[in-house]
From TrEMBL:
Keywords: Hydrolase, Magnesium, Metal-binding. SUPFAM superfamilies: HAD-like (SSF56784). Pfam families: HAD. It comes from the Bacteria. This is HAD-IB family hydrolase.
Length: 281
């Protein structure tokens, strides 16, 4: 009797506030400023946008505001320059803000033979390199329109809301995933379609609306408080480590708040700039 071939499965992860502790779309603001792409005023606006993202408990309006901010900010930039800056500074910017618990969860899914897929509303230029850093098999992200090598300020594909669930179904068809056996993780109520597309789902650091929805449906709720440098989770000596190397709980948010307020005071003439690396990240 012929055996049924094994069904492939995958784990789908949102990125911001699910795998990393900040907005990937704005994480490289300081580096873009250093590379000559941003003005001081633009850097200040991005610092404030990052603060709002970190502190908001309702993503519905915030994500749309961030989309407008990022597309306006990037209009006219050379796409190749953006990719180069992200590649050169990825370790310094992203590695310290990966949630230790998310890294461990990704390692568990990989060990179980599941593909790892990042699916994010942030730009592909940021998400693709982050996916490589995390060992993701596939990435789906927002694609901005490029004309003559420069961003036009328009969006070709917006990986947001229902589009994430559509992308999941397309990937399942292309790669033979049984979505009923797949896993999905997100922090935002805007990703409910994505979460409902998978047979197994959990909410991570959920916003207020998603926490209430998950509680009502008895979904698993995970709290990842520990951003920490990415370690080799394939090493048995480090696989069980979580809190010990993540002593900086809350440090990312605190640094962002302090830097943003310092930048705001400087813009108003109330005090000196902080001059720190995270001033607009």
């Amino acid at each position: 009797m012929a055996q049924t071939p094994p069904t492939r499965s995958a784990a789908f992860f949102d990125l911001d506030k699910t795998v990393i502790a900040r907005s990937s779309a704005l994480a490289f603001t300081r580096q873009f400023y250093d590379g000559g792409l941003l003005t001081k005023r633009g850097m200040l606006r991005s610092a404030i946008a990052q603060l709002q993202f970190l502190l908001t408990s309702d993503h519905t309006d915030q994500v749309e505001k961030m989309r407008r901010h990022v597309t306006e900010m990037c209009a006219g930039w050379e796409a190749a320059t953006v990719r180069s800056i992200v590649s050169e500074t990825l370790d310094d910017v992203v590695r310290p803000v990966i949630f230790a618990e998310a890294a461990a969860l990704i390692a568990e899914h990989k060990a179980a033979g599941r593909d790892i897929i990042l699916i994010s509303a942030s730009g592909i230029e940021m998400v693709e390199p982050i996916g490589e850093l995390l060992g993701a098999d596939t990435v789906r992200a927002t694609v901005m329109t490029v004309v003559d090598g420069r961003y036009s300020g328009e969006i070709e594909f917006y990986c947001y809301g229902d589009q994430k669930a559509i992308a999941m179904r397309e990937l399942a068809e292309a790669h033979g995933y049984d979505l009923a056996e797949c896993y999905a993780y997100s922090d935002s109520s805007t990703d409910i379609p994505m979460l409902e597309a998978a047979g197994h789902r959990a909410v991570v650091n959920p916003d207020k609306a998603l926490r209430a929805y998950a509680t009502q449906l008895d979904w698993e709720i995970l709290d990842f408080p520990n951003p920490a440098p990415l370690v080799d989770w394939s090493d048995p000596a480090t696989r069980g480590w979580t809190a010990a190397a993540a002593a900086g709980v809350g440090v990312v948010a605190a640094v962002a708040v302090a830097a943003g307020l310092s930048a705001l005071r400087h813009h108003r003439g109330d005090g000196p700039p902080s001059g720190g690396r995270h001033a607009a990240a």
